[in-house]
């Protein structure tokens, strides 16, 4: 497991402009994405690509700082979409935001695969709140690209089509959910319904509940490490 000191040793290896793929209506997507290597890949090793999605009012950098100590990978590449989504950006036209984010990520991921030691079969989405909503929806939009997701404290309101679920099952994708037991009832129901959708489709999934509200599990709780170990299990 990576400690906090390792997080501050992150090395910027690539700036990804990606603006051609981003819809200029969404100010947060006008900023370039950043790709970083965490840990030290062995010579010739291909490592997972972890796409960290920002929460409402936050940045992907801030989310990575919170998640990194719990990520059980000795080395990986982190893809951090730029910007700080606002309610105007992401909530007024969530479908439009998702379409723009999807286009941005397809461009960014393809470039990372070309220029960095990325294992193209191990691309994961991590998101909390708005980022979790986006991660869940993007599973249905990018089933050919991603291997799984962490969906944390999200309403998970998108409907994943049967074809996307079939692709995810064929690719042996895994999805982990976390939710606070005192979170909004709509989020709890949304996550439970999303988990049920995956179970019916025979896609490995698990729900990790903890004593909390609308938040990531606290650092002294083992919920987040357990959820991420489940996600990255091979």
Would you write up a description of this structure?
The structure is a single chain. This protein is of the alpha/beta class. The chain has a single domain, classed as Alpha/Beta hydrolase fold, catalytic domain (Rossmann fold, 3-Layer(aba) Sandwich), CATH 3.40.50. Helices cover 36% and strands 23% of the residues. The chain is built from 8 helices and 8 strands, in the order αβββαβααβαβαβαβα. It has an 8-stranded mixed sheet, sandwiched between helices. The protein is globular and about 45 Å long. The two termini are 16 Å apart.
Number of domains: 1
- Under the CATH scheme, the architecture is 3-Layer(aba) Sandwich
Distance between the termini: 16 Å
Please tell me the overall pLDDT.
90
Helix percentage: 25-40%
Structural class by sheet pairing and helices: alpha/beta
Number of helices: 8
State the strand order across the main sheet.
1-2-4-3-5-6-7-8
Proportion of strand residues: 15-25%
The largest pleated sheet is described as:
8 strands, mixed
How many strands appear in the DSSP assignment? 8
Roughly how many Å is the radius of gyration?
16 Å
CATH topology: Rossmann fold
* The top level CATH class name: Alpha Beta
């Amino acid at each position: 497991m990576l400690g906090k000191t390792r997080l501050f040793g992150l090395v910027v290896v690539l700036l990804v402009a990606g603006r051609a793929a981003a819809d200029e209506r969404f100010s947060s997507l006008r900023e370039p994405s950043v790709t970083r290597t965490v840990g030290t890949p062995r010579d010739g090793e291909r490592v997972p690509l972890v796409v960290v999605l920002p929460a409402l009012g936050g940045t992907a950098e801030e989310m990575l700082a919170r998640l990194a100590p719990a990520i059980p990978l000795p080395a990986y590449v982190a893809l951090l979409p730029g910007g700080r989504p606002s309610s105007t950006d992401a909530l007024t036209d969530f479908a439009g935001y998702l379409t723009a984010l999807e286009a941005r990520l397809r461009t960014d991921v393809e470039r990372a695969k070309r220029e960095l030691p990325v294992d193209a079969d191990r691309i994961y989405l991590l998101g909390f709140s708005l980022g979790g909503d986006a991660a869940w929806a993007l599973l249905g939009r990018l089933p050919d690209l991603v291997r799984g997701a962490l969906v944390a404290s999200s309403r998970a309101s998108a409907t994943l089509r049967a074809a996307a679920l079939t692709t995810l099952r064929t690719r042996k994708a895994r999805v982990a959910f976390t939710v606070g037991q005192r979170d909004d009832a709509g989020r709890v129901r949304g996550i439970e319904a999303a988990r049920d959708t995956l179970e019916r489709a025979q896609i490995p999934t698990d729900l990790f509940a903890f004593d909390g509200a609308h938040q990531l599990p606290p650092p002294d709780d083992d919920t987040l490490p357990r959820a991420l170990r489940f996600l990255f299990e091979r």
